[in-house]
Amino acid sequence: MYWQRRSDGRVCIFETKGGKPKALPRDRTRHLDQQPDEVVERFIDSLAPRPPKPLSNEELTQHAETYCARMTHDGMSKTTVEMHRYALLSRIIPFFLSQDPPLTDPNGWPFRCARLYDHLVGLGISADLLIKCNAALSGLWNWLQDEGLVDASIKLRLRRPRQLAKETPLSFTVTPDEVLAWSVGREPDVAFMGLVGFFFSLRTQETLAVRAGDFLAGTKAAGIESGKVMARAGLFSKLAINVTKQHSKSSGDTAAAPKANSKGWVSCFDERAAVAIVGLVRTLKAEGREGPLVDFSVGCNLARWKQCGFPGLTLKDLRRASIYWLGHHTDLGLVELKSHARHERVETTAKYLRRPNEEVEAPDELDLEA
Question: Which alpha helices (H) appear in 1-56, and where do they start and end?
């Protein structure tokens, strides 16, 4: 934007639009005709767009705290909220403020994400913490966009650490028959944990949060997608659980949101187990359990399982053994098994499809009839 004073004293102010100068209307500049040049310059400065006021460290910290409060309000577990708070206040915001000049305006953060990743790698933090930092930054950025505090058209491009595929961490595997045989004569809550954890392939915190109202049975269960998938594979399809919550590790909170990608219906794949589970649900309901059917704290339930559960297997091991058995002994394909297990990445599911390494003593002579 520039100005000219004509020979007759008129002041004309021009702004460039589309590469061509365009004069402002005279009603906006007429009052400047009798003013000195200094007044005209100050008027032009007032018309220039002002850059947004940079945020201070205190304001950025407040944004992070408000975002964490929103997560708590939305039902996220205390552990997840604290993880996001730590990543934001101890790793992410300090990095952006350490730049030259400090990136106090979050609109500049997407263009430094690669440097942030290199910085975190240089600190020697684990791949798991890198993933958590990505989740915290992505969550805060989405919240800032929802609040209109950053440009909604800008997307973060976060780098994900490469992780080598690991073997299925199982000491040994179990079969449905072995789990069913173990459950006979057990206390109802212990048997319920084992049967639901194995035959629905639930995560530990999901097993501990199951309520009677989460079940769907009969033709309705067979008509939903998870039931149809089981039927196509020749498995049982008439009992399902709707995973909508998980038991929080925090005391007093039993209705935290489940792990990402975990919501949805999951079907029991064995009819004998389904009959036993329905009977246990009725037994536990008769005891007046209106909330989670396993009606104790997380620590107490895990201690009971360690003492009375399937020997040598944790509840998490039961889920792994279940997915392993489905991957090796049924007709469920990779995609169907991934949906059943509710894995985020197909590479995780693929670990359970590998053939076991078996050592067999070779015969002295090749004999197909032996």
Answer: 26-29, 37-47
Domain count, the chain: 3
φ, ψ for residue 35, nearest 5 deg: -95, 155
Q: Evaluate whether residue 279 is within a structural domain.
A: yes
pLDDT digits (tens, 9 = 90+) for 217-253: 999 999 999 999 999 999 999 999 999 888 775 544 4
> Apex CA 78: angle with CA 68 and CA 161, to 5°?
75
Query: Could you give the C-alpha distances from 358 to 170, 340, 354, 370, in angstroms and in order?
Result: 15, 27, 12, 19
Task: Show the domain range for 139.
Answer: 57-146
Looking at the fold, whether 321 and 213 belong to one and the same domain comes out as yes
Round to whole Å and give the CA distance between 337 and 324. Answer: 10
**Per-residue pLDDT reduced to its tens digit, 72-89:** 888 887 888 899 999 999
What contacts 131, CB < 8 A, 6 or more positions away?
Answer: 160, 161
Tell me, yes or no, whether 140 lies in a domain: yes
Residue 360, in any domain of the structure: no
Q: Are 254 and 209 in contact (CB under 8 A)?
A: yes
